[in-house]
Amino acid sequence: MSQLLKYLFCFLFAVFLTSCNHEESVKIVSNEELNQIKNDLDLSKFSSVNITSNIEINWKNSNKITNEDFTIYEIQANEKSISSLQSDFLQNQLKYQIIQIEENEKLHSYFVEIYSNKESELYPETIAKLSNFTGTLNTFSLKGENLGSVAVSNGQAKNISENTSLDVLTKAINSFSNNSNITKKIPLCDKTYTQTVYEDSDRFQVWTVGTTLITIKYLGTVRTTTTVLLPYPCDGSVDKEVLVLHRINQYTHVGGASYTTIGIATAQRIEDNINGNALDPCTKAVLDKMKNLQQSDIASMINRFNPPASPFNINMSVGQVIPSRDWAQTTAVNGIYTDINMVFNQNYINGTGNANRPTDLSIATTMAHEIIHAYMISLLEEDKSCGTQGICDFPTVYDAYAQQKIKNDKNNTLLVDAHHEVIANNYIYAIAATIQEFHTGQTVNSGFPNQVYLDMAWGGLIGTTVFNNNYPDDPTHKNYKDRERILARIIAEKNGNQYGITSPLGTPCKK
Amino acid sequence: MKKIKLTILIILPLFINSCASTKYLKNYEAINIFLETQKLDKNKRYILQHEKEKNMQALRIFNGREGSEHIIDTNDPIDYTAGLFVEKHWKKMYKTYANDTINKYWRKEDFPNLNFILENEKGLLNEDFYNRYINTRINEIIIISDPMYYMNKKYIMFYYEKTYFDSSRSSQVVIMKKEKNKWIIVKTIGDYIIS
To answer: Which pTM does this prediction carry?
Structure first.
């Protein structure tokens, strides 16, 4: 009898143990499993500079979780130099992780960049314990393809990008959630945040004679601080395609001014190749001054595209344009990807129908804006010339602009809008710093140009999603006065005359 | 004899007019349907360029360049017209519409669902124009061309542009067709000119 009781006790104990294991178990990831992930991961293929150059994988910090439906491998990653976000709704720290999920003997791998909302606890480094976490997982394949975003609200996940590749990740997160409120709106929509990234670049001077290396001199380390206004991904009113564009492109100019010898040389060649001989004296003077700024000249602005494209020629002129409302137009010379035509509308430059001509500040802003267009056109044309050989090494902006809009969107609708969204997302600060130095003669060392130059930098971008999210055309919105101020500044400088209470800061050329 | 001359003088313009009118649609139902898709705020006022935009704008975007010659970029495998460009029909459309440069004007009644303000092209975005609209919340201009027939009247196409007061614009050619008695948008092609 006692023997029978012993067996019964052992059986019940075993059943009890099994029931404890029913929910999940956490184990260490084996070397074999890690090696497979190591083989698959290629950080160099990511479009985000922060991921390619600032992320290290902590292979020793990994775990394996199993529950009823999934086996999940999680490997932590961290930033070598911590970047920071400035946002009124996001915490200032980003988290990174590799997640591999096995479902029905099929593996699904993700590299995730995690944004934690301010009211949430910081990402707990596992998808199994997200009940107090609210934020967004910006998700990539291990080869750097952006798959879109999964939003999490107190442990409940939603595939907001509606990319089927994210279904398994979403289901896996939800398998740990007790929260059944799936209709809850997540997360905040139509918001932006500011990210500040610090990048240290070592500078060397290389002396060679012919093919012989004479000496390499270490010049020092330059810390580049870059601040960029970024949209937050969500399932709100913003066009999904535009969101994807933003997400892929978010760190495009994180590198800021690159001080590698090659970068400067290429950007300088692009600047040198701007031919302004067909410009009127006033516009030519603006161009010459823009070429010779101390810190934020055209070469430096171009260098914010990291790395720069191949050198190309810009032929600037003043003339008639159609549509006649444009202040300037930039187009590729058919069949020659290295040549770009930039025509400034003669009515704009001459102030036709107005008392004055536009100020030098207005022309400088238009010029900076058009040069960025020229750069993007050159990338696209260069891509076409590369064909399918894949021999071109394109900068990150190519991923955002050309790949997304041209290769994936075969309708090729609204090319101009795509350009403007990229500029609005990435180059407002670059344009503002350039025109501030142009106007004041003082370099912008703080990384934050003055408000008036930031206002001017929005010129030509009023129709973009980013602008209208930040400054909605709604008099009850807190930023509506900013919207009016920005538009008034652009118009006053264009008219070269008082507009309402706004006086032009720049100087118009004589009529 | 005088009477005959007078009759000819009266009849001739009518005849010319009747020829011209067959080139264009009798009403603007199609454009109004397209405008519905543009989410223009019906409580807001927009400026409409009084002159119908020149046909050339729609033609050049559809052709990818000015003029009638159509050049295919051998490096670019994507047909941005999605097969809608057919040389024979293109030539016919170009010949019919390219030289039609007489100014024609929109009327407010053409767009009954929107409260447009008509403004002449010449004054758009000049100083006087800006000063007239200061503090009005009106800061967008709509520009539309007359729809042209394409491919034996199977399709129509027209130019549509929305320009903001900072001169930034979004412009495209809109291609539509009538299916089961309803106008549908077949394709929009964005402008290749970047401003």
So the answer is: 0.61
